[in-house]
Every structure is written in C-alpha cells, then in structure tokens.
Amino acid sequence: MPPRKTAIVSVSIIFLLFVGGNLANKKKNEEVQKKCDTCRELAKSFKEGMERTARYNFAGGDTDWEEKKLGKYSTSETRLIEIVEQVCSKDKYECNTMLEHNEETLETWWTEHQTDHPDLVQWFCIDTLTICCPDNTYGPDCQECPGGIERPCKGNGKCSGGGTRAGTGKCKCNGGYKGELCDVCKNGFFTEMSNETHTVCTACDDSCAATCTKGGPTGCKKCKGGYNMVEEKGCQDIDECNQEKPPCQSSEFCQNSPGSYKCVECNMACDQCIGEGPDSCVKCKTGFQMIDTTCKDIDECETDETCKKEHMFCKNVPGSFLCECEEGYLQSADGCVPKSILEGKDILPDPSLSLKDGDAPPAAETDQEADSTTTKGGEADNISDESLRRETGENKSNTEEQNDSVDTNSLRAEEMESMEQHHEEL
Ligand SMILES: *[C@@H]1O[C@H](CO)[C@@H](O)[C@H](O)[C@H]1NC(C)=O
Ligand SMILES: *[C@@H]1O[C@H](CO)[C@@H](O)[C@H](O)[C@H]1NC(C)=O
Ligand SMILES: *[C@@H]1O[C@H](CO)[C@@H](O)[C@H](O)[C@H]1NC(C)=O
Ligand SMILES: *[C@@H]1O[C@H](CO)[C@@H](O)[C@H](O)[C@H]1NC(C)=O
C-alpha cells in the first residue's frame, strides 16, 4: 500500500474508533444511569415496604404465633418475604430482574446490616452493587462534580453522571449559562449578579441584537432589525406602517408589531382599507357602496336591464350579479332557450360566465344550477360577454382572472408569512 493511502486508512480507523468509542461510552453511561435509577427505586420501595409491615409487629393473630415460633417479626424471614413480594410492580421489568439477581444480597442486609447500615441506597446501590454514587459525585470512583458537592455546576447546570458510577462529570448548563462551571452568561444574556458562589444570567431585552449590558431596551449594545436606537429610551420599535413609503399594497392594510409588520388583505368589499372588515374601507370596490361607513353590496338586480330577456332573471352576488335562465332553459347567444332545443348538442354549461372579475360563485349552488342557467362553449361561444357583464371597463376572461387572482393571493400570503418569520428570527 502506498504510504499516502496507509495514512488515510489509519486516520479513518482512528476516527472510527473515536466515534465508535464515544458511542459505546454513551451507551454504557445510559445503561449505568438506568440501572442506578432502578436500584434507587428498588431501595426506596423496599424501605416503604418496611414501613408498611412495621404495623404488623403487634398486630396479633398469625404474627403473634410467628413471633413465638420464629423469633422477632421485625427481622423475620416472613416479613422480608412480605416486603420483597411487593417491592417491584409486575410491569417493571428492570426492577424485577434486579431483584431476582440480588435477593440474597438483600437478605444479607436484612439479617446482618439493617442496624449498622440503615441507608439501603448507600449499602446496596453504592457500596455493594457499585452502580450508584452519592449525590453530586460521578464516575467509577465517585469523584466530586465540578463546583463541589454542595452546588455542582454553580447551581446552573447538571453534572454528567452525577449520582452514578458513570458519566464524565462535565456540567450541562441550563439555558443562558455556559463555561465549565456554568458561571458565564451566554450571548443574549447579561450578568444580573455574581459573587464567589452565585452567578445569575438574565435574558437581554427582545429589542437587542445579541448582547447587552443590562435589562430593558436601554441595555442593548446594538438593536435588532426593526428597531432604532433612540437616545435615553434605547431600542425602540420602528413603525413600518407609518413610514413615508407604506410597505403594503393598496389592497392591503398594514399591521405593525414589535420589530416587524404585516400586510393583510383588505375585505373583499374594499378597494383600500385601514383595517379588517367592510367597515374599515377607505374606498369601496366596484359593486359596493358606502352606507354608514360600511361598504355594502349593491343589489344590481334592482336596476339591471341586461338580464331582462325572456326566461332570464337577475341574481345578485357580492360585488356583481348574474343573469340566469329559468329552470328548463339554457343560455345561448339569443338569450335563454329551452333545454330541449340545445339537447344532443355538445354544450358544456359554464356557471362562471356572467360572473364579474374575482367573484367566485358559491360552488355547491352553481353546480346544482349550472344545468339550467349559464352556458358557454360550443355554439354558445358567440354569446356576448359584454351584454351579460356590467359595464365595469374590465375585459379579462372571468375564469382566467379568477385563477390568476387566487394564485397570486395565495402566493403573496406565503411570501408574507415567510418574510414575517424571517423578520421574527432576526
Ligand atoms: C452570593 O449571592 C447569593 C445569592 O444572592 C447569596 O445567597 C450568597 O450569600 C452570596 N455569597 C457571598 C459570598 O456573598
Ligand atoms: C359566431 O358568429 C359568427 C358570426 O357572427 C359565425 O360566423 C360563427 O360561425 C359563430 N360561431 C359559433 C360557434 O356559433
Ligand atoms: C375592453 O374591450 C374593448 C373591445 O374589445 C376595448 O375597446 C376596451 O378598451 C377594453 N377595455 C379594457 C379596460 O381593457
Ligand atoms: C387554473 O389553474 C390551474 C392550476 O393553477 C390550471 O390547472 C387550470 O387549468 C386553470 N384554469 C383556468 C380556467 O385557467
């Protein structure tokens, strides 16, 4: 093998050993942690069993008989069995396995060490099974956690493996803290107080970019996007909506928020608006009129002349109106003609034919009525859109426009959302 390849291979092997070793270590640590937890639970449950059975001591009956026959109940085999029977609940597999493997050890404690080593966790889990360590110590030799047994990790974190024979003892710091002893404030936090034993880190104000010297907007070293540094007041929200050049389109209204803003689509009745709802319009859309500060739909059918053809009637819809045929009639170039005349010919009814731009008819209704009302396509192609349409000066094909507007709306909403998220993240 050429030396270069050898080098690469050996580096890879070392790397794999390193990663593999770390993984194996991690797994072992987790196992020990779990075993220690099981042991502590078992010991606790055993002690509870002792308290439970303590009452039986002078309970009379069988116990009395046993005391005479077998000696003192408090240290009797009978009591031990009673305790052990209930020490693990049936569904606790780990507990039952540990109990099974260590019944004799527990019996030894019961008969020999109950008085000289009353702490069962210490005697059983720490000294005998050697899977646990005293609180705030870790590793095979139960070393002290960094920062000492009293307040390991300065009280701002957890010592890896603490209380078990496993772990590295490294401090895992709580939010806002870092450093080997968790006594340094993370970016975005400031030192609220600090003395020899205690460090308190507190989050900077929301308006700060990363670091600060104290709490509140005046503590920021730099402002986050969407905020301006104002003398004596610190970082203040920029009201994007009140800027010289408004950030929203004319069919939207602007909503300011801390560090950001939102453009929200106006109500369908509004051409321009200052808020949600038809009562916040500045101008009404065509087909709507301002009545008592609210844009209300105009009932075009009250004045309409276009639908006044035989067997045709006018139907008002928000912002517009439809010319529809009576039941049994279909629309054609000549107005409404009996269905029977058009039957057999390839005619597909198009319910949106006489709809004004952007106004989708209620789907269920039109589906139902399509048959007898508006038609388009085939021979009816020649129908004059103009005659069925109110004179709005808008010429685009209805269906296309509807599609377009829906598409751009949803697109814009998505863009908005992601922009907002971006803003907030910043
Ligand atoms: C450090 O601060 C803590 C919390 O305020 C306090 O309890 C402790 O007595 C202080 N220690 C010293 C040495 O000043
Ligand atoms: C539409 O009308 C024109 C004349 O105005 C006629 O030549 C044409 O055949 C008609 N088309 C249909 C589909 O009826
Ligand atoms: C609508 O169409 C007519 C003729 O097709 C045209 O003269 C008019 O300018 C169009 N109006 C608009 C707003 O596009
Ligand atoms: C509407 O748009 C969809 C896809 O966005 C397209 O499949 C459909 O053909 C369009 N309909 C019309 C009438 O343009």
Please explain how this structure is put together.
The two termini are 53 Å apart. This protein folds into 4 domains: 3-128, no CATH class; 137-203, no CATH class; 252-297, no CATH class; 300-402, no CATH class. With 426 residues, it is α+β, with helices and mostly antiparallel strands. It has helices at residues 3-54, 62-70, 77-87, 93-113, 120-128, 339-342, 363-369, 385-388, 398-425, and strands spanning 137-138, 143-144, 157-159, 171-173, 177-178, 184-185, 189-194, 199-203, 227-230, 234-237, 252-257, 260-265, 270-273, 281-284, 288-291, 294-297, 312-317, 320-325, 329-332, 335-338. The model is unreliable at 350-426 (pLDDT under 50). The strands form 10 sheets. The chain has a two-stranded antiparallel ribbon. It is elongated, with a radius of gyration of 41 Å. One 2-acetamido-2-deoxy-beta-D-glucopyranose (NAG) is lined by residues 379, 381-382. Its EC number is 5.3.4.1.
